[in-house]
TrEMBL record:
Enzyme class: hydrolase
MF annotations from Gene Ontology: ATP binding; ATP hydrolysis activity
Protein name stated in the entry: Arsenical pump-driving ATPase
InterPro entries: ArsA/GET3_ATPase-like, ArsA_HSP20-like, ATPase_ArsA/GET3, P-loop_NTPase
UniProt organism field: Candidatus Nitrosocosmicus franklandianus
Length: 392
């Protein structure tokens, strides 16, 4: 079973490329589901079909689509927990509607689409699931809950440990409200599912994240952050799609400026995301949508390759925590101790490598928040890997 997640900044082409990928997978005879949690119901627009709802609907042979309805999912899976937390706020005099807004943690809607995946994975309903996910990494944080809360099995046997999950976060507000047992049960269930989900998402053979960018600095920066944080969470990013590239032969001074600018950004992206698999996708002369156009796009970007392949399976960065030190390991083949230079600027690390043609390759890597209080202690290169050590 394969899970392919597309993420990237708004408008880069996540939805259309999720749909293209899913069509190609279905054509290759994989039973495929494409999932989106976008409240704007964009799957329907991309496929140009009348409806895509909250149950898988058949689009083509082997191809199903589902639009997660976060409100419904929330009510089904988490309703009583949310009501309980909201009731604590509301008892303190907060308006009830506002209490619900506050009780809703950031990234929770995204989390429900991920939990939906866990459900389909559990039932082995599909060979491939393609997910269209907004760029915020908020939801991924919840995957750490089971680890933070500890062994769930133990909690079932001992009642006392129970109050350490989601609800515990709101306990300081509620010295008096007892936690209802159904809330505890739902929370336990949720933690269990999160634990399974976390295993699915960090299994390189199952899950690949693909970054969608356009040849502009905003979407590249966004994707760099996504690459850093997903690597931190232990997820595998296997490819980058650079979408909306203008064809070079546009004979117009306005577009020549754009194509020249895009070329520099394409080069920057290739260095920044080395050694991930890079796909270049041109800006079509009309809006990319409809099954035929999406299928043609998939044929162009994947050519004869199977989109369910794991295109790259190593980590681009690795953070190793060793007591008070944090070591960042970065792959940099063809680099030796004389041809590179590392500097830190705030929460970015700038690595300059002089390549064989005498050009400087510059890679700017966002640093995790944990390094804010740390100093860059030493830089070493070992077997094609740059090791940067930070210390408190
Ligand atoms: N290569 C392309 N050529 C032409 N049009 C494109 C191309 N890629 C995307 N588009 C168009 O750009 C628009 C945005 O694409 P899409 O909705 O897939 O982006 P998104 O990343 O999902 O956006 P959002 O963040 O809003 O969900 C759509 O109208 C789509 O048809
Ligand atoms: Mg979208």
């Amino acid at each position: 079973m394969r899970l392919i997640i597309y993420t990237g900044k708004g408008g880069t082409g996540k939805t259309v490329n999720s749909c293209s990928t899913a069509i190609k997978l279905a054509d290759l005879n994989y039973k495929t589901l494409v999932i989106s949690a976008d409240p704007a119901h964009t799957l329907k627009d991309a496929f140009m079909v009348p409806v895509v709802g909250n149950k898988p609907i058949k689009i083509l042979d082997n191809l199903y689509a589902l639009q997660v309805d976060p409100v419904l999912e929330l009510a089904e899976n988490y309703g009583s927990v949310l009501s309980y937390v909201a009731s604590i706020f509301s008892k303190r005099g907060l308006d009830e509607t506002l209490s619900y807004e506050i009780a809703m943690l950031p990234g929770m809607t995204q989390l429900f689409s991920l939990l939906k995946i866990e459900e389909f994975m559990r039932h082995e309903s599909f060979d491939c699931i393609v997910m269209d996910m907004p760029a915020s990494g908020e939801a991924l944080r919840y995957l750490y809950f089971p680890k933070l809360v500890g062994n769930i099995g133990e909690k079932f046997s001992g009642f006392t440990g129970v109050f350490s999950g989601f609800v515990k976060m709101f306990q300081p507000f509620s010295s008096f409200a007892p936690i209802p047992t159904d809330v505890i049960q739902i929370e336990m269930n949720l933690l269990k599912r999160l634990e399974i989900l976390s295993k699915i998402l960090t299994d390189t053979k199952i899950t690949s994240l693909r970054l969608l960018i356009n040849p502009d600095s905003f979407s590249i920066e966004n994707a760099k952050r996504a690459l850093m944080s997903t690597n931190l969470y232990g997820m595998n990013v296997d490819a980058v799609i650079i979408n909306k590239i203008f064809p070079r032969q546009v004979p117009d001074s306005y577009f020549t400026k754009w194509t020249e600018y895009q070329s520099t950004k394409i080069e920057e992206a290739k260095t920044s995301f080395y050694p991930l698999y890079i796909i270049e996708e041109r800006f079509y002369e009309k809006e990319l949508k409809g099954i035929e156009m999406l299928r043609e796009n998939a044929e162009t970007i994947f050519a004869n390759k199977d989109p369910s392949r794991v295109f790259y399976s190593d980590k681009v960065f690795e953070f190793v925590k060793d007591g008070p030190t944090l070591i960042l390991k970065i792959k940099a083949p063809f680099t030796n101790k004389d041809n590179f230079d590392v500097n830190r600027y705030g929460d970015y690390l700038v690595i300059k490598i002089l390549d064989t043609t005498g050009n400087n390759i510059v890679n700017v890597i966002p640093l995790p928040i944990a390094t804010i209080t740390m100093k860059l202690y030493e830089v070493k290169i070992r077997e094609g890997i740059i090791e940067v050590t930070f210390r408190e």
